[in-house]
Amino acid sequence: MTLELPLNRGSLFIYKNILMKKLVLVCIVIFVAANGFSQKGMKSLLNGKDLKGWSTYIGPKEKGGVPVGLNTDPMHIFTVTDLEGIKVLHISGEVNASIATKKEYENYHIRMVFKWGDKVTTKPNSGLLYHSYGPFGAGMDVWMSSHEFQLCTGKMGDSYCMGKSYFEIPVIRNVDGSYVYSPSGEKMQFGLGKTAPIAAKSGDYEKLRGEWNVIDLYCFGRTSVHEVNGKVNMVNYNSGKIENGEVLPLTKGKIQIQSEGGELFVKTLELEPIKEIPAELLK
User: Fold this and answer.
1) Looking at the predicted structure, is the pLDDT value of residue 157 above 50?
2) How far apart are CA 8 and CA 6, in angstroms?
3) Mean pLDDT across the stretch 75-102?
4) Is the Cβ–Cβ distance between 174 and 226 less than 8 Å?
5) By CB neighbour count within 10 A (0-12 exposed, 13-18 middle, 19+ buried), where does 279 fall?
6) Of 9, 185, 260, 261, which has the fewest Cβ atoms less than 10 A away?
7) What is the pLDDT of residue 260?
8) Given this model, what pLDDT does residue 41 score?
9) d(CA 138, CA 133)
10) 193: nearest Cα among 259, 247, 269
11) What is the CATH code of the structural domain delimited by 41-282?
12) Cα–Cα distance, 74 to 88 (Å, whole number)
C-alpha cells in the first residue's frame, strides 16, 4: 500500500520533519555502533562506581621482588575515575598486575573500548586475557594461564598463549622467523613447548594515539576471533590447556586485563552470550 500525501505546504512540512527525524536516528545508531557505546543485549562488566565483581593481583614493584599480592593495591593500579565526563576504569601500568572477573564466561562476544593515557612506564602495553584459569602467577609470574588478545601498540590483535594455554592457528612464516596469522596458512600448534607461544596478527588496525580503540572478541566452543576496530586480524582454533603433556579442551574461564607498562582507560567492557560466531568473521 502506498501512502499518498496531499500536496500542500503543511503536509510537506510534516513529511520532511518525519524524514529528518528518521535520518537523525539512523546517524545516531551508526555513531554509537562505530564508537563502541553500549549495544542492545550486552551487559557491562563495569559498574562505573567501584571494582565489585573483580579481583586484583599486583606483581612485584621491582624486578626480582616479592608480589604485592591478591586484592591489595596500595599503588592504586586499578581505579574507577572520571574522564571526558564519563566513568572509566583507569589502569596505571606502573607494575605488572591483573584485574580479573570473579565469574567465568563461556560462548560470548565481548567488546572493550579503550585508549592509551600519557604515562608510559615501559611501553604502551596491555592485554585482554580470556579463558583464564588456575592461580595467579602461572603466566610470567603474574597472570593466570589464559589466551591473550594482545593490546600492545604495534601488536594489537596478536594471540599469545599465557602460561599453559594452547591454540592451533593457521599461519605463514616471515623471513624474520615470526609466525603471522593467515586464513590460508598452515595450521600450527602454539603454546608452551610448541611451535611458539605467540602468533602475530594479519593486519594493523590500531587507532592513532589518544583515540579510542574498539576491540571485539568472539568465543564459541574452542574457537575465538580477534577483531580490532571492525577488522578481523586473528582466528584461533582448538583452544586447550596443557596438563601433563596432554592438551585438554579449554572453552571457558575468567577475563583478565593487564597492567603492563602503559597507562590506559577502559570506557566500555560489555559481554553478551552467543550461539555461534558470525560466519563472515571466519572467512
Assistant:
1) yes
2) 6
3) 97
4) no
5) exposed
6) 9
7) 98
8) 81
9) 9
10) 247
11) 2.60.120.560
12) 20
Closest to 92 in 3D by CA, of 280, 263, 268: 263
d(CA 110, CA 44): 9
Domain boundaries, the chain: 6-35, 41-282
How far apart are alpha carbons 242 and 138 in whole angstroms?
12
DSSP-assigned states of every residue in 153-188? TT-TT-EEEETTEEEEEEEEE-TTS-EEE-TTSEEE
The amino acid present at 108, given as its one-letter code, is Y
DSSP 8-state code for residue 32 = H
Residue with cell 572467512: 283
C-alpha cell at 252: 571457558
Q: Do you know the residue count of the chain?
A: 283
| Confidence band, pLDDT 50/70/90 cuts, at residue 13 | very low
Q: Which three cell numbers stand for residue 277?
A: 560466531
Among 123, 180, 130, 122, smallest CA distance to 153 is for: 123
Pairing type for strands 213-220 and 69-70 reads: unpaired
Average pLDDT over residues 240-266: 98
Query: What residues form DSSP beta bridges with 86?
Result: 83
Query: What number is the average pLDDT over the span 247-271?
Result: 98
CA distance 150 to 201: 9
